[in-house]
Design goal:
Blueprint: H1 2-26, H2 37-53, H3 67-81, H4 87-100, H5 110-119, H6 127-131, H7 148-153, H8 159-171, H9 177-195, H10 204-232, H11 236-244, H12 250-261, H13 268-274, H14 285-294, H15 307-317, H16 322-337, H17 344-347, H18 353-365
The chain binds ligand AR6 and magnesium ion.
């Protein structure tokens, strides 16, 4: 029994510490445009060298976490303090955290939600997010980037509970269906990675099929809704939008695409085009899933035996929203490979690692 518990703790720690590292190291390259793999390799080499030099009394340069970790910490802290899900507490923690440290690199529009939440004193916690973008809601990846702790907290409860918690946690700031679905894809990927049997060869196609199985009903439901909307409002503008909307179930489509990509060599520009690497949920969560799955095997040009390290290096090398893609991919990788797979030298400069370990322990105690 104790061995099982220790193994689970290792995977919980792996996921949360991994997420912190992906964020802190990925943030070095955020929005830099094209990222060169050789530069990322040099960055991690430098981190390792600086760690070695610690023994000579040299100081480590701190790599600060960004909004991804700031918000993930609130998710974890709320689940632990409330011994489960309490949306008002979660919203209050997000709001307080933002006002306490607004310069953590938050998305351009989400700050308005926190200002409204504070002014309205949190009566209807979902209302400010619903009003964003003329009632469309934000489709940013801000819901997905922070959700890993929910997968840990809900591990004993199963997918339906995880989905409910993920959807409501996301809706505090993001009400667009793609932001919500992206968060469900992310929490599902972490949940499935935690449960994957490490002693067997990782069947990555089966992993993707399980994700598709979870995403399909959500996307079908959304499709039905949009068909109904189309019948009600037949303005030419709406019609034009629908005709150009060629991919009807975009997350399932991208997950199928990942299966194809895992079988061949694919260029970064092809990945950018087909999966995305931007700040939208649809344009980043699939890239994170792909990075995690691809790094299970060797990657030409990344000469390390550690699949965890490959995950972070590869995710950052895709460019674009590097901290968020790397944090999401590393949350999956850490959940799969466990804490022992994460090098000490990479942990040392990253802000928030010790707290992440405590949160992992607290979330384990909820099981
Ligand atoms: N219509 C048009 N533009 C949109 C829409 C929409 N419905 N939704 C989002 N945008 P935000 P996040 C654009 O502020 O998702 C940071 O680096 C718009 O330009 O909700 O919490 C984080 O670390 C808006 O300002 O932020 C994340 O990686 C932007 O998307 C990332 O930003 C971000 O949406 C997104 O964080
Ligand atoms: Mg980010």
């Amino acid at each position: 029994m104790r061995a099982v518990l220790m193994a689970t703790l290792s995977r919980f720690r792996g996921s949360l510490v991994g997420a912190v590292l992906g964020d802190c190291i990925g943030a070095i390259y955020e929005c830099e445009g094209n990222v060169k793999l050789k530069d990322v390799l040099k960055t991690v080499k430098d981190i390792e060298t600086k760690y070695k030099n610690l023994k000579d009394g040299k100081e480590l340069e701190l790599l600060p976490f960004t909004d991804d970790t700031a918000m993930a910490r609130s998710v974890a802290a709320s689940l632990i303090a409330k011994k489960g899900f309490d949306v008002k507490d979660m919203a209050k923690r997000f709001t307080d955290e933002f006002h306490n440290e607004p310069n953590r690199g938050y998305g351009g529009s989400v700050g308005a939600v926190f200002v409204a939440l504070r002014n309205d004193n949190l009566e209807d916690v979902f209302e400010p997010a619903r009003k964003q973008f003329d009632g469309q809601g934000s489709f940013g990846n801000g819901g997905a980037m922070r959700i890993a702790p929910a997968a840990l907290g809900c591990m004993k409860d199963g997918f339906e509970k995880l989905k409910t918690v993920t959807v409501a946690t996301t809706q505090v700031t993001h009400s667009h269906p793609q932001a919500i679905q992206g968060a469900v894809l992310q929490s599902s990927a972490v949940d499935l990675a935690l449960r994957e049997d490490q002693s067997k060869e990782f069947d990555r196609e089966r992993f993707l099929d399980k994700l598709i199985e979870r995403m399909k009903p959500m996307e079908e439901e959304e499709l039905e809704k949009s068909k109904k909307d189309e019948k009600v409002a037949c303005s030419p503008k709406r019609k034009a939008k629908r005709v150009s909307d060629t991919v009807k179930m975009p997350y399932c489509h991208k997950l199928e695409k990942i299966k194809e990509f895992l079988q061949k060599d694919v260029s970064v520009s092809e990945i950018e085009e087909e999966l995305g690497n931007d700040i939208s949920a649809l344009g980043s969560v699939p890239a994170a899933v792909y990075s995690f799955l691809k790094a299970y095997k060797e990657i030409p040009g990344i000469e390390t035996d550690s699949a965890f390290e490959r995950t972070i290096i590869y995710a950052i090398s895709l460019g674009g929203d590097t901290d968020t893609i790397a944090t999401m991919a590393a949350a999956m990788a850490g959940a799969y490979y466990g804490y022992e797979a994460i090098p000490e030298s990479w942990q040392a400069p990253c802000e928030g690692v010790e707290d992440a370990k405590k949160f992992a322990q607290g979330l384990l105690e909820l099981q």
